[in-house]
Amino acid sequence: MTARNAFYAQSGGVTAVINATACGLIETARRYPERIGKVFAGRDGILGALTEELIDTSLESDADIARLRHTPGGAFGSCRYKLKSLDEHRAQYERLIEVFRAHDIGYFFYNGGNDSMDTAWKVAQMAEAMGLPLVSVGIPKTVDNDLAVTDNSPGFGSVAKYVATSMREAGYDVASMARTSTQIFVLEVMGRHAGWITAACGLAAEAEGEAPHLLLFPEIPFAPEAFLARVAECVARHGYCAIAVSEGLRDATGRLMADMGSRDAFGHAQLGGVGQVIAQLIKDRLGYKYHWALADYLQRSARHIASRTDLEQAYAVGAKAVELALAGQNAVLPVIRRLSDAPYAWDIGVAALGDVANVEKQMPREFIRSDGFHITPACRRYLQPLIEGEAIPPFRNGLPDYVRLKNRLVAKQLPPFPL
Amino acid sequence: MTARNAFYAQSGGVTAVINATACGLIETARRYPERIGKVFAGRDGILGALTEELIDTSLESDADIARLRHTPGGAFGSCRYKLKSLDEHRAQYERLIEVFRAHDIGYFFYNGGNDSMDTAWKVAQMAEAMGLPLVSVGIPKTVDNDLAVTDNSPGFGSVAKYVATSMREAGYDVASMARTSTQIFVLEVMGRHAGWITAACGLAAEAEGEAPHLLLFPEIPFAPEAFLARVAECVARHGYCAIAVSEGLRDATGRLMADMGSRDAFGHAQLGGVGQVIAQLIKDRLGYKYHWALADYLQRSARHIASRTDLEQAYAVGAKAVELALAGQNAVLPVIRRLSDAPYAWDIGVAALGDVANVEKQMPREFIRSDGFHITPACRRYLQPLIEGEAIPPFRNGLPDYVRLKNRLVAKQLPPFPL
Question: Is the pLDDT confidence value at B268 over 70?
Answer without folding.
Answer: no
